UniProtKB/TrEMBL annotation:
Gene3D superfamilies: lambda repressor-like DNA-binding domains (1.10.260.40). This is Transcriptional regulator with XRE-family HTH domain. SUPFAM superfamilies: lambda repressor-like DNA-binding domains (SSF47413). Residues 5-46 form the HTH cro/C1-type domain. InterPro entries: Cro/C1-type_HTH, DUF5753, Lambda_DNA-bd_dom_sf. It holds the Pfam family HTH_31. It comes from the Bacteria. GO terms for molecular function: DNA binding.
């Protein structure tokens, strides 16, 4: 749905949609209800999201930076509050596992597309990405299940040294008790393959469709409020997890590719 479509269906002006998307203004409870109605959010999920929004002010470390979209702000807050996070990654190492140099290389490379991205904005985005990693530091109450496609370990961003250190960080983090890292091998038969996504669980509810999925890329980002779609992504993650390597087998394949980046 485009910004103009959203404005028309909510009865807002296009400029209001733009200001909300870029977090320049907040919206009233009435506007929130209209938004949730438009996306047919169920009553149970509506209650949970409204309660979450009321209880989670923007952390100070996220303020005074370049304008961020409402979707990104929501992602950052929900990532912090999630009790269990499941992530499937097809292209690159996810932000909370990236080294500083790997993150900077990715963001710097994006300047080839986003020609308006300044050097200071690159630094701010790198700093934000690194600050997110504090959720992995003790004390940690959440659990993380992260599946990497094997191609993520091979695809080179930056120098051999950057890649070698990035894979070393994956090995280190995978030893933490609250993180389970999986690798989906390129060899062998696989039943499904889909775009990257993240599943957040905000409580103890583990019934099908109870997670809050997030699908994001460099050019778009969205939460999925449809519980049927959420249940589908949960099943997809379970299938991918069952096909992936874990523990010592995952470590072995990471070390194998790390040796290719010896410097």
């Amino acid at each position: 749905m485009t910004g103009d479509d959203l404005a028309r269906q909510l009865g807002w002006s296009p400029s209001k949609v733009s200001r909300v998307e870029n977090a320049r203004i907040s919206i009233s409870q009435d506007d929130t209800d209209k938004f949730l109605d438009l996306f047919e959010v169920t009553e149970s999920r509506r209650t949970r999201l409204i309660k979450l929004a009321a209880s989670s002010p923007t952390p100070p470390s996220w303020r005074h930076r370049e304008p961020m979209s409402q979707s990104l702000l929501a992602f950052l807050e929900i990532e912090t509050l999630s009790t269990s996070t499941r992530q499937w990654c097809t292209s690159f190492v996810p932000g909370i596992l990236q080294t500083e140099e790997y993150a900077k290389t990715l963001i710097e490379n994006w300047r080839l597309v986003d020609v308006g991205l300044t050097a200071s904005q690159v630094e701010e985005r790198v700093a934000l990405r690194l600050s997110r990693q504090s959720i992995l530091s003790p004390p940690v109450s959440a659990t993380y299940y992260i599946i990497l496609d094997e191609s993520v370990l091979i695809r080179r961003f930056g120098s051999k040294r950057i890649m070698h250190q990035q894979l070393a960080k994956l090995l280190d983090i995978s030893l933490q008790s609250h993180v389970e890292l999986f690798v989906l091998p390129l060899g062998g038969a696989h039943g499904i393959l889909d775009e990257s996504f993240t599943l957040f669980n905000l409580g103890d509810d583990e019934t099908p469709g109870s997670s809050l999925p997030y699908i994001g890329s460099n050019t778009s980002e969205q939460f999925v409020f449809d519980e049927l779609r959420a249940a589908t992504l949960e099943r997809e993650f379970a299938i991918l997890r069952n096909s992936a390597l874990s523990g010592k087998e995952a470590h072995k394949i990471i070390r194998y590719h790390q040796r290719a980046f010896d410097f």
